[in-house]
Amino acid sequence: ITRSGGGSSLGCEGSVLCHAVPCRAVLHPDIISTVEFNHTGELLATGDKGGRVVIFQREQESKNQPHRRGEYNVYSTFQSHEPEFDYLKSLEIEEKINKIRWLPQQNAAYFLLSTNDKTVKLWKVSERDKRPEGYNLKDEDGRLRDPSMITMLRVPVLRPMDLMVEATPRRVFANAHTYHINSISVNSDYETYMSADDLRINLWNFEITNQSFNIVDIKPANMEELTEVITAAEFHPHHCNTFVYSSSKGTIRLCDMRTSALCDRHAKFFEEPEDPSNRSFFSEIISSISDVKFSHSGRYIMTRDYLTVKVWDLNMENRPIETYQVHDYLRSKLCSLYENDCIFDKFECVWNGSDSVIMTGSYNNFFRMFDRNTKRDVTLEASRENSKPRAILKPRKVCVGGKRRKDEISVDSLDFSKKILHTAWHPSENIIAVAATNNLYIFQDKVN
To answer: What is the pTM for the complete model shown?
Structure first.
């Protein structure tokens, strides 16, 4: 168990003053593979390559310790997926958690979906602080009593006990994907969700585990004619009939489930025409979209490709309304990034609660923030060396030319093994979670 922390976010005025809040994080030898706040922001779930889910709970603010506001501590840890072996195809199925999605809270318990490459599971996380005592047929240790010794009827009573958090699997949705699942998304009707792999998207009902409906299938009759794969998919936040999915060709398709049962024909098609002057050997690889997210308002779509983040208006398909350069200085390094496979890294992107700021990751444990109103951007670093609890994060700069200022870092000295692929933003406050390999950092705005 370690204690890591740091601080950040662009405030309402685009302020880049960043202060840290401590976070007690569990360090596994395995790398964090997904991060997700629940709908209130009180809980934060992480999944890792070892198939484990760790849930953090936010500390309640107290008058005695107001500085601890925002601190997240371990709430529950459980093994979600185990390694498996497909004997028919002679394939190992990793236990790595690809995605976690929370369901809105309906009662005292919490529910979340977690998936590895093949199987989606619905988990119930609940608290228990009382235990029943005084059974008739069992003694207090749970052993069965001799029926001939039972001479009177007892009424069991509930006794207080230490708080225990239990995670139990309620549904297992398996055997529906031939290829690796890359996305799951809960519908706004909260009765259905979808899971997407490289070539197909399936629609599930939460109550039915043995049957799903295939709503998108882009697999060609001859696999040699395959030109693109599905990279991410998400439901519209308000309209239960609408969803989008992105492709490795840099295109986004918006589908309407009211038109037909099989949504192979899209309702809208978003694609930016390529600039012929920028055409290179790597153009197709770097144009592949690694993440797609609806804004909270439902009006915009955000996509992340290798070098940029783009914001699209649902009413304009021919080009994005905003394009943000994440690390344009890497354009000259694409050859070496291709050789070390970094060019295939899948970076995620997130909105803040008001859709005014965008966050996404980069290399050297840098992450970037773009204020859509002021057009200001900032580069921050999540590392244990410079992120002591309650420290102010200093903006970082990368220089491309020969001359380097004192506070700048050269593009040639960037560490490509340190990368921020997974981030999450609190739904209503300026609190963010950043996964840097096997460290989890939680940052927030300056707290007065």
So the answer is: 0.85
